[in-house]
Amino acid sequence: MKIAIEVQKLHKHYESFHALKGIDLSVHHGEIFGFLGPNGAGKTTTIRCLLDLIRPSSGTVRIFDIDPQQNSVNVKKFIGYLPGELNLDDRLTARQSLSLFAALRNHQADWKWIEEHANKLKLRLDTKIKNFSKGNKQKVGIIQAFMHQPRLLILDEPTSGLDPLMQKQVLQMVTAAKNNGATVFFSSHILSEVEEVSDRVAIIRDGVIIDTAVVQNLIAKNVRCVTITCEKQIDVDGLLNKLPHLKLLENKQNTIVLQVEKELAKVIDYCSPYTIKDFVTKEPSLEEIFLTYYTS
């Protein structure tokens, strides 16, 4: 499988602060790759290193097998970038601002597409930036990232400041870009949107990638919530002594609710002599998995 982004042993120091601690990433061509972590985890620093906006202290970055440090201008030609902190000229209208961005890209912009998506996002193109809310400024940034149909989209918190309906529109744009052959790398701390559109996800914590997986595989291999009802009262103390990694969430008459990780078969074996009447298992959401990583 072709690799769109490859990062190896990436470190970034700010004097005594170690922002990135040797991260490794591979993003496949044509996939939507979610980059998860709270503020301060290293998401934006990683993105800035990808784009050669800042230089890493050590390690390597390749974008479609090109080193952005050696060929920064050419790499940026086929990237659409939405920064986490968007600065626009308040004196311009949205249309003038997008025209300026198009001129910087040798007028590689589809104005029919721009008009169509400005309408979908309810963005008034002839209003001055200074009169826009944060959400409307974000919409300008989103359109400029997509408007030249880039091979690679790098989006830093793309739905920040948007209401739920507009968030949905942006996620549809992301999916449409993938369907047209683009690769999408986007950072977020909104877990539901990552779960909805991503093919794979990486979780970063304190400058370290702590897991990378297909979203559904990440969900499948993690903690489950299990509710078991038996004909006889279960010896819960005996169960917890035998399987100490279990977490008891509820114990009411002949029903117990457990948090289970990798020991589901053993739980069933233990409860079988009590005659299981009902057994319900619930897969965790990406949010529940994320909280497990960040509280462990």
From TrEMBL:
InterPro entries: AAA+_ATPase, ABC_transporter-like_ATP-bd, ABC_transporter-like_CS, ABC_transporter_ATP-binding, P-loop_NTPase. Signal peptide: none annotated. Residues 5-231 form the ABC transporter domain. It comes from the Bacteria. One of its GO terms (molecular function) is ATP binding. SMART domains: AAA (SM00382). Pfam families: ABC_tran. CDD domains: ABC_DR_subfamily_A. PANTHER family: ABC TRANSPORTER ATP-BINDING PROTEIN, ABC TRANSPORTER ATP-BINDING PROTEIN NATA. Belongs to the ABC transporter superfamily. This is ABC transporter.
